[in-house]
C-alpha cells in the first residue's frame, strides 16, 4: 500500500510556491512507483483553478469545504492577508485535526500558512513525519524566532531552496535538521513555446512577478526611463498582478512611458515571452530562490538580475550565468545594462549555456531524488 503524503499550502494569489507544491506532488506521483501517494489539501477552493492539472497528473485533492467563508480567492495587502491567515487558523483547526486523525498520512509537507499544522503537530502527538518547507527568505523577528524554537522541536525536517538560506537557518537553529532541497521548477510538459520567434523592430525586455514591494518594479521602471534616453528603441513588459498595479501604472502614465513600458497582467504560460525577448530583468529586493530566473535560464534567455538575498547570486553563480547588479542601486543597474549591451555574442552565449546547465538541477526528478532521501532519514 502506498504511503500518503499530504501537502498543506493555502494561498491567496498566484505565487511561485503554488507551482512548487504542484510540481513536488507530480514528482512523487511520477517517480516513486506508487511507493508514495500525494494529496493536496484544499481549504477554501484555492486550488480550483488548477483542477485540470491536478486531474491530469492524478493527484488527490482533499477539500475542507470552507469555500463559503472565503468569498475572495485573490487577496492583496499585508493586513488583509494576515486577517485571512487568522481566519484559516480558526476555521480549519478542527477539520484539519479530524482529517489527520482519520486518514493517518505517513508524511505531511508544510509550505504556506504553516502556523496551524505546526501547532497541531506540536500539541497532538502523532506518527506523521512532518517537513516544513521554507518557501522564501525568512524574516526572523524575536517573536517568530521564539515561536519557531518551540514548535519546530517536533518537526522532522526543515528544507530550504538555497544554500545561503540553509546556512542562515542552521546558525539560528543549531539543533534542528535543516536540508537543502531545490524547488521543482522545470516540468517539461509545462514549457510551451510559439512555433517561431516574432519579428521585432525594438529591443524587448521582460520582468515577471507579483506587483509588490519585494519585486521592486518601481525601481525598475525608473531605471528603464533612463535607459530609454540612451536606447530609445527599447520596450519593457512587466508580467504579474498585485497591489502596486495602480501606483506603477500611474507613474508610467504621468511620465509618458506607456509607449515603451507595459503592464501585461498575469500570464499562465510565460515561456513564449521569455524566448522572444533580448533579456529578462529581475529587480527584486529578495528572492529564494527565484523561479523566474530558473525558467529564464532554461529558456536560453539572457538574465540581468539584482544580487539580492538569497537566490540570484547562487543561481547566476556570481555573474558567470548572467549579469548581476547591486540590489536597488540605480547607478550600478545602468552600468550593468551598458555592460550587457556592449558584450560580445560569444560572452552572452557562454553565460546562457552556463545558466541552462544550472537550470537542469531544478528538474522534477532531481527534486524527487533529494526529497525521497529526506523522507527516509
In short:
This protein has 377 residues and is of the alpha/beta class.
Task: Describe this structure as you would to a colleague.
The chain has 377 residues and is of the alpha/beta class. The strands form three sheets. A seven-stranded parallel sheet has the order 3-2-1-4-5-6-7, with helices on both faces. Strands 10-9-8-11-13-15 form a six-stranded parallel sheet, sandwiched between helices. Helix 5 links the parallel strand 5 (129-133) and strand 6. The protein is built from 14 helices and 15 strands. The chain is globular.
The low-confidence runs, each spanning 5 or more residues with pLDDT under 50, are none
Tell me the strand percentage band.
Answer: 15-25%
Number of strands: 15
Rg calc = 21 Å
Distance between the termini: 20 Å
Major beta-sheet overview: 7 strands, parallel
What does the overall shape look like?
globular
One letter per element, helices H and strands E, the order comes to: EHEHEHEHEHEHEEHEHEHEEHEEHEHHH
Structural class: alpha/beta
Q: Helix fraction?
A: 40-55%
Number of helices in the DSSP assignment: 14
Mean pLDDT: 91
Question: Strand order, biggest sheet?
Answer: 3-2-1-4-5-6-7
Amino acid at each position: 500500500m502506498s504511503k500518503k503524503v499530504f501537502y498543506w499550502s493555502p494561498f491567496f494569489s498566484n505565487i511561485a510556491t503554488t507551482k512548487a507544491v504542484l510540481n513536488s506532488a507530480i514528482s512523487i506521483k511520477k517517480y516513486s512507483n506508487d511507493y508514495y501517494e500525494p494529496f493536496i489539501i484544499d481549504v477554501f477552493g484555492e486550488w480550483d483553478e488548477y483542477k485540470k492539472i491536478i486531474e491530469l497528473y492524478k493527484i488527490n485533492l482533499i477539500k475542507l469545504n470552507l469555500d463559503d467563508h472565503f468569498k475572495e480567492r485573490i487577496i492583496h495587502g499585508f493586513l488583509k492577508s494576515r486577517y485571512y491567515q487568522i481566519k484559516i487558523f480558526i476555521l480549519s483547526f478542527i477539520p484539519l485535526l479530524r482529517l489527520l486523525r482519520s486518514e493517518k498520512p505517513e508524511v505531511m509537507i508544510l509550505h504556506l500558512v504553516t502556523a496551524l499544522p505546526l501547532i497541531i503537530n506540536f500539541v497532538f502527538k502523532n506518527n506523521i513525519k512532518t517537513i516544513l518547507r521554507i518557501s522564501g527568505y525568512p524574516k526572523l523577528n524575536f517573536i517568530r524566532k521564539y515561536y519557531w524554537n518551540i514548535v519546530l522541536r517536533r518537526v522532522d525536517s526543515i528544507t530550504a531552496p538555497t544554500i545561503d538560506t540553509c546556512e542562515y537557518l542552521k546558525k539560528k537553529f543549531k539543533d534542528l535538521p535543516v536540508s537543502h532541497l531545490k524547488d521543482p521548477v522545470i516540468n517539461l510538459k509545462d514549457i510551451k513555446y510559439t512555433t517561431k520567434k516574432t519579428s521585432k523592430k525594438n529591443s524587448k525586455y521582460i520582468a515577471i512577478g507579483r506587483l509588490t514591494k519585494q519585486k521592486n518594479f518601481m525601481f525598475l521602471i525608473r531605471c528603464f526611463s533612463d535607459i530609454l534616453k540612451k536606447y530609445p528603441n527599447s520596450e519593457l513588459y512587466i508580467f504579474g498582478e498585485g497591489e502596486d498595479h495602480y501606483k506603477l501604472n500611474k507613474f508610467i502614465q504621468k511620465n509618458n512611458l506607456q509607449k515603451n513600458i507595459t503592464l501585461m497582467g498575469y500570464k499562465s504560460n510565460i515561456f513564449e515571452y521569455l524566448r522572444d525577448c533580448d533579456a529578462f530583468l529581475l529587480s527584486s529586493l529578495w528572492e529564494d530562490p527565484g523561479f523566474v530566473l530558473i525558467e529564464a535560464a532554461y529558456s536560453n534567455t539572457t538574465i540581468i538580475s539584482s544580487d539580492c538575498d538569497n537566490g540570484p547570486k547562487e543561481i547566476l553563480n556570481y555573474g558567470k550565468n548572467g549579469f548581476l547588479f547591486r540590489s536597488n542601486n540605480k547607478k550600478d543597474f545602468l552600468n550593468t545594462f551598458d555592460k550587457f549591451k556592449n558584450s560580445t555574442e560569444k560572452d552572452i552565449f557562454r553565460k546562457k549555456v552556463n545558466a541552462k546547465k544550472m537550470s537542469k538541477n531544478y528538474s522534477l526528478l532531481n527534486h524527487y531524488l533529494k526529497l525521497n532521501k529526506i523522507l527516509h532519514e
